[in-house]
Amino acid sequence: MFIIISFVFLGCLLGLILGILIRNKFIIKISSILISLFIIFFILIFLISFINENKSLRFYFTKSINLSEENMGEMYLGDSIDQYKIKNKYGKVLSPSKDIVEYNYYNLTDGIEIATNKNDNKIIRFIIDNENIKTSRGIHIGDDKNQIIKFYGENYYTRIEQGMNIIGYIDKKKEWCLEFWLGENDIIYMIRLDYKYME
Q1: Residue 129: Cβ-neighbour burial (10 angstroms; 0-12, 13-18, 19+)
Q2: Residue 181 clears pLDDT 70, i.e. is over it
Protein backbone atom coordinates (compact mmCIF):
# COMPACT_ATOMS: atom_id res chain seq x y z
CA MET A 1 0.00 0.00 0.00
CA PHE A 2 2.78 2.41 0.97
CA ILE A 3 4.60 1.63 -2.30
CA ILE A 4 1.47 2.46 -4.34
CA ILE A 5 1.01 5.74 -2.45
CA SER A 6 4.68 6.59 -3.06
CA PHE A 7 4.34 5.96 -6.82
CA VAL A 8 1.19 8.08 -7.00
CA PHE A 9 2.98 10.88 -5.11
CA LEU A 10 5.96 10.66 -7.49
CA GLY A 11 3.55 10.75 -10.44
CA CYS A 12 1.98 13.93 -9.09
CA LEU A 13 5.43 15.45 -8.57
CA LEU A 14 6.46 14.56 -12.12
CA GLY A 15 3.15 16.00 -13.36
CA LEU A 16 3.92 19.26 -11.58
CA ILE A 17 7.42 19.40 -13.10
CA LEU A 18 6.00 18.62 -16.55
CA GLY A 19 3.29 21.25 -16.12
CA ILE A 20 5.92 23.84 -15.21
CA LEU A 21 8.10 22.84 -18.19
CA ILE A 22 5.27 23.03 -20.74
CA ARG A 23 3.62 25.96 -18.93
CA ASN A 24 0.25 24.25 -18.61
CA LYS A 25 -1.67 25.94 -15.76
CA PHE A 26 -4.26 23.14 -15.49
CA ILE A 27 -1.62 20.41 -14.97
CA ILE A 28 0.25 22.64 -12.48
CA LYS A 29 -2.96 23.33 -10.51
CA ILE A 30 -4.10 19.66 -10.36
CA SER A 31 -0.60 18.41 -9.47
CA SER A 32 -0.22 21.09 -6.76
CA ILE A 33 -3.57 20.17 -5.20
CA LEU A 34 -2.73 16.44 -5.19
CA ILE A 35 0.74 17.04 -3.71
CA SER A 36 -0.79 19.27 -1.01
CA LEU A 37 -3.32 16.55 -0.15
CA PHE A 38 -0.54 13.96 0.11
CA ILE A 39 1.49 16.22 2.42
CA ILE A 40 -1.56 16.86 4.64
CA PHE A 41 -2.29 13.11 4.69
CA PHE A 42 1.25 12.23 5.84
CA ILE A 43 1.25 15.00 8.47
CA LEU A 44 -2.03 13.64 9.85
CA ILE A 45 -0.65 10.08 9.93
CA PHE A 46 2.42 11.34 11.83
CA LEU A 47 0.32 13.34 14.31
CA ILE A 48 -2.04 10.43 14.95
CA SER A 49 0.84 8.04 15.65
CA PHE A 50 2.54 10.65 17.90
CA ILE A 51 -0.64 11.32 19.87
CA ASN A 52 -1.36 7.60 20.11
CA GLU A 53 1.90 6.95 21.98
CA ASN A 54 2.23 10.18 23.96
CA LYS A 55 1.21 9.84 27.61
CA SER A 56 1.68 13.50 28.59
CA LEU A 57 -0.99 14.70 26.17
CA ARG A 58 -3.51 12.37 27.83
CA PHE A 59 -2.95 14.19 31.13
CA TYR A 60 -4.78 17.28 29.87
CA PHE A 61 -7.73 15.53 28.22
CA THR A 62 -8.57 12.81 30.76
CA LYS A 63 -10.70 13.36 33.85
CA SER A 64 -8.82 12.98 37.11
CA ILE A 65 -9.43 10.24 39.65
CA ASN A 66 -7.96 9.84 43.14
CA LEU A 67 -4.87 7.62 43.01
CA SER A 68 -3.40 8.73 46.37
CA GLU A 69 -3.85 5.25 47.88
CA GLU A 70 -1.97 3.54 45.06
CA ASN A 71 1.09 1.64 46.20
CA MET A 72 3.04 -1.38 45.10
CA GLY A 73 3.91 -3.74 47.90
CA GLU A 74 3.42 -0.95 50.50
CA MET A 75 5.78 1.36 48.57
CA TYR A 76 4.54 4.69 47.23
CA LEU A 77 5.78 7.06 44.56
CA GLY A 78 8.13 9.50 46.26
CA ASP A 79 9.40 6.97 48.81
CA SER A 80 13.17 6.76 49.14
CA ILE A 81 14.79 3.49 48.10
CA ASP A 82 16.82 3.82 51.32
CA GLN A 83 13.77 3.79 53.61
CA TYR A 84 13.76 1.12 56.30
CA LYS A 85 10.57 -0.58 55.06
CA ILE A 86 12.12 -1.11 51.62
CA LYS A 87 15.50 -2.26 52.96
CA ASN A 88 13.78 -4.54 55.44
CA LYS A 89 11.62 -6.20 52.77
CA TYR A 90 13.96 -6.25 49.75
CA GLY A 91 17.41 -5.64 51.17
CA LYS A 92 19.71 -2.79 50.19
CA VAL A 93 19.22 -1.60 46.63
CA LEU A 94 22.75 -1.65 45.26
CA SER A 95 23.12 -1.07 41.53
CA PRO A 96 20.84 -0.18 38.62
CA SER A 97 19.53 -3.00 36.44
CA LYS A 98 19.21 -0.84 33.30
CA ASP A 99 21.41 1.87 31.86
CA ILE A 100 18.94 4.60 30.86
CA VAL A 101 20.09 8.20 30.31
CA GLU A 102 17.53 9.94 32.53
CA TYR A 103 16.71 7.28 35.12
CA ASN A 104 18.10 4.46 37.23
CA TYR A 105 16.06 1.23 37.19
CA TYR A 106 16.32 -1.37 39.95
CA ASN A 107 14.92 -4.91 40.17
CA LEU A 108 13.74 -5.34 43.75
CA THR A 109 12.59 -8.91 43.19
CA ASP A 110 11.00 -10.95 40.44
CA GLY A 111 8.21 -8.92 38.91
CA ILE A 112 8.89 -5.63 40.73
CA GLU A 113 11.05 -2.96 39.14
CA ILE A 114 11.39 0.65 40.30
CA ALA A 115 12.97 3.75 38.80
CA THR A 116 14.55 6.88 40.26
CA ASN A 117 16.03 9.98 38.71
CA LYS A 118 19.79 9.73 38.10
CA ASN A 119 20.78 11.98 41.02
CA ASP A 120 17.99 11.05 43.40
CA ASN A 121 16.83 8.03 45.39
CA LYS A 122 13.08 8.79 45.31
CA ILE A 123 10.88 6.27 43.50
CA ILE A 124 9.31 7.78 40.39
CA ARG A 125 8.06 4.63 38.65
CA PHE A 126 6.89 1.13 39.45
CA ILE A 127 6.74 -1.62 36.83
CA ILE A 128 4.90 -4.70 38.02
CA ASP A 129 4.50 -8.03 36.28
CA ASN A 130 4.09 -10.09 39.45
CA GLU A 131 0.55 -11.43 39.82
CA ASN A 132 0.84 -11.40 43.63
CA ILE A 133 1.07 -7.59 43.75
CA LYS A 134 -2.32 -5.87 43.73
CA THR A 135 -3.26 -2.23 43.21
CA SER A 136 -5.09 -0.42 45.99
CA ARG A 137 -8.38 -1.47 44.39
CA GLY A 138 -7.42 -5.13 44.09
CA ILE A 139 -6.39 -5.36 40.42
CA HIS A 140 -3.43 -7.58 39.49
CA ILE A 141 -1.71 -9.25 36.54
CA GLY A 142 -4.14 -11.70 34.92
CA ASP A 143 -7.26 -9.57 35.45
CA ASP A 144 -8.98 -8.25 32.35
CA LYS A 145 -9.95 -4.83 31.02
CA ASN A 146 -13.55 -5.15 32.26
CA GLN A 147 -12.35 -5.67 35.83
CA ILE A 148 -10.13 -2.60 35.59
CA ILE A 149 -13.03 -0.43 34.43
CA LYS A 150 -15.32 -1.94 37.09
CA PHE A 151 -12.95 -0.86 39.90
CA TYR A 152 -11.41 2.31 38.44
CA GLY A 153 -14.27 3.69 36.35
CA GLU A 154 -14.81 5.08 32.88
CA ASN A 155 -12.46 8.09 33.15
CA TYR A 156 -9.48 6.47 31.45
CA TYR A 157 -7.37 7.12 28.38
CA THR A 158 -6.10 4.63 25.84
CA ARG A 159 -2.83 4.58 23.96
CA ILE A 160 -0.46 2.15 22.25
CA GLU A 161 3.21 1.65 23.09
CA GLN A 162 5.55 -1.11 21.90
CA GLY A 163 2.54 -2.65 20.17
CA MET A 164 0.65 -3.00 23.47
CA ASN A 165 -2.80 -1.59 24.16
CA ILE A 166 -2.78 0.49 27.33
CA ILE A 167 -5.53 1.99 29.45
CA GLY A 168 -4.52 4.56 32.01
CA TYR A 169 -5.85 6.71 34.82
CA ILE A 170 -4.64 10.13 35.92
CA ASP A 171 -4.52 11.86 39.29
CA LYS A 172 -4.02 15.51 38.32
CA LYS A 173 -3.51 16.65 41.91
CA LYS A 174 -0.63 14.26 42.57
CA GLU A 175 0.43 14.13 38.88
CA TRP A 176 0.42 10.33 38.97
CA CYS A 177 -0.48 7.95 36.14
CA LEU A 178 -1.59 4.36 36.61
CA GLU A 179 -1.40 2.29 33.43
CA PHE A 180 -2.52 -1.22 32.67
CA TRP A 181 -0.72 -2.82 29.70
CA LEU A 182 -2.95 -5.36 28.03
CA GLY A 183 -1.96 -8.54 26.23
CA GLU A 184 -4.11 -11.04 24.37
CA ASN A 185 -7.84 -10.97 25.15
CA ASP A 186 -7.34 -7.68 27.04
CA ILE A 187 -5.66 -9.49 29.94
CA ILE A 188 -3.31 -7.36 32.08
CA TYR A 189 0.28 -8.10 31.17
CA MET A 190 1.96 -5.32 33.17
CA ILE A 191 1.04 -2.52 35.57
CA ARG A 192 2.92 0.77 35.62
CA LEU A 193 2.53 3.54 38.21
CA ASP A 194 4.57 6.69 37.70
CA TYR A 195 4.63 10.46 37.45
CA LYS A 196 2.94 12.01 34.43
CA TYR A 197 6.16 13.49 33.04
CA MET A 198 7.69 10.05 32.48
CA GLU A 199 7.41 8.61 28.98
Answers
A1: middle
A2: yes
Straight-line distance from the first to the last Cα atom of the chain, in angstroms, rounded to the nearest whole number: 31
CA–CA gap between residue 124 and residue 176 (Å, rounded): 9
pTM: 0.71
Q: Give the amino acid at 44.
A: L
Give the mean pLDDT of 153-161.
Answer: 91
CA distance 170 to 58: 8
Q: Is the pLDDT of residue 95 over 80?
A: no
At 140, which amino acid appears? H
Per DSSP bridges, beta strands 123-128 and 188-195 are antiparallel
Which residues have CB under 8 Å from 187's CB, separation 6+?
A: 142, 143, 144
Reported as half-sphere exposure (CB side, CA atoms, 13 A), residue 154 has a value of 0
